[in-house]
Amino acid sequence: MPPSPPSLLPFFSPPLFSPPSLLLHLSPSLPTPSLSDCRQRFRAVLVEAIVKLDEQVKRIGTAVEDSKPYWEARRVARQAQLEAQRATGEFQRAVEILRAAKETIALAEERLLEEDSRQFDSAWQEMLNHATNRVMEAETTRTRSELEHRKTANHYNACISHMRQHENKLKRTINKSRPYYELKAKYYLKLEQLKLCVDEHQAKLTVAKADYRTALRNLETISEEIHARRRAIAMGTRGRGVGVEGDGGHEVIPPPSSEVGAWIT
Predict the structure, then answer these.
(1) Which of 100, 107, 174, 219 is most deeply buried (CB count within 10 A of its CB)?
(2) Which tens digit of pLDDT belongs to each residue from 184-214?
(3) How confident is the model at residue 84, as a pLDDT?
(4) In a domain? residue 25
(5) Does any domain span residue 91?
(6) Which burial class, exposed, middle or buried, applies to 21 when counting CB atoms under 10 A from its CB (0-12, 13-18, 19+)?
(7) Residue 77 belongs to domain with CATH number
(8) Which pTM does this prediction carry?
(9) What backbone torsions phi and psi does residue 80 show, to the nearest 5 degrees?
């Protein structure tokens, strides 16, 4: 069987329930059409990738499978490179923070020595203690990041060495299978971008559904409040007895709470 891009279809199964038509009419800002469009594009690209990669396998032959250890080692080496670069950046930032903290203490001590009239009071002591603590924390961070930097660098070098071994052993099949794996990498990147699009719209849809459920609960509460007031007015009218006239002769229903206006706007 030809290798294919990792299946992401389980992440895009239809939701357990669809929003009712009322929800779509009252809340046209829901991103349902965009979500559907992203899903359709993802599935179309996935099917296209499977077909194109299958064609490459039939054209290239067994070199695709024979050279697979090299391409897997290359992928691992690339990941190790990214981790090493991240650790290098963190180590450089830790070194810079430590340098700035030491400079702060040096400048403070220099100012204290230059100002003869300045006494070493509690304010200076507190400031120096704070700066000293920052230096100690920066040194701890620098040591930790340096160890991580060395660890990731060694891991990267080991991965490169492993990849070179496969490269020397499988040079012929690697060159022959290169079009397949380059095409696979291109489709994988495109599918990842479409997956991000789907995830983004799915998150917006989830938030919109939650907001709409909250609005429906608020509307239900307001409706119950209105009915309760009407029942209370009806009970009061019957309690006054038959033939007793009201002030205006008409039933007055108090307006609902201010939540109605807030919900409508």
Answers:
(1) 174
(2) 999 999 999 999 988 888 888 888 888 888 9
(3) 95
(4) no
(5) yes
(6) exposed
(7) 1.20.120
(8) 0.59
(9) -65, -35
